[in-house]
What we know:
The chain is mostly helical. It has helices spanning 9-39, 45-72, 81-87, 100-129, 132-156. The N and C termini lie far apart (52 Å). The mean pLDDT is 97. Bound molecules: fe (ii) ion. Fe (ii) ion is lined by residues 37, 53.
Amino acid sequence: MKPQIGISEKHLSVSIEMLSIILADEMVLYVKTRKFHWNVSGESFMELHKLFQNQYTELEETIDLVAERIGKLGGKTIGTMHEFANLTRLKESPNKYPNQKDMMKELLEDYETLIVEIRKDIEACNEKNKDAGTVDFLTAIMEQHESTAWILRRYLN
Ligand SMILES: [Fe+2]
């Protein structure tokens, strides 16, 4: 059954498409953060090992919320690595094992990319889609990413 929630079918499908891309981005960032958790080494090993664990745990929760919101708007949620890799706006770096500082730089860049993209998505969702629920939902995710970016930036200054 289609949700009858005061948003047209066309607008619902635009929101679903937008959320699917964000889901792909969050999945790619999640996998990258796990890779860094597994491979970080050096002086601050345990601190960064734990920091990355906290970050991917937070991403895991976000991923679940995004995936379920797609369902709430009447969409089917993608769930294959192939689709995530195709849809994401982030870049993966196969065969690369950066040092501690470069890991944090790469994560910071990804978080900042996501913040910029989600900010644009929020605007589009507000002006074109009239989907206040998704605007509110994405604003909270963007703010959470702003906090994580701030923490990463602190290590790099
Ligand atoms: Fe672990």
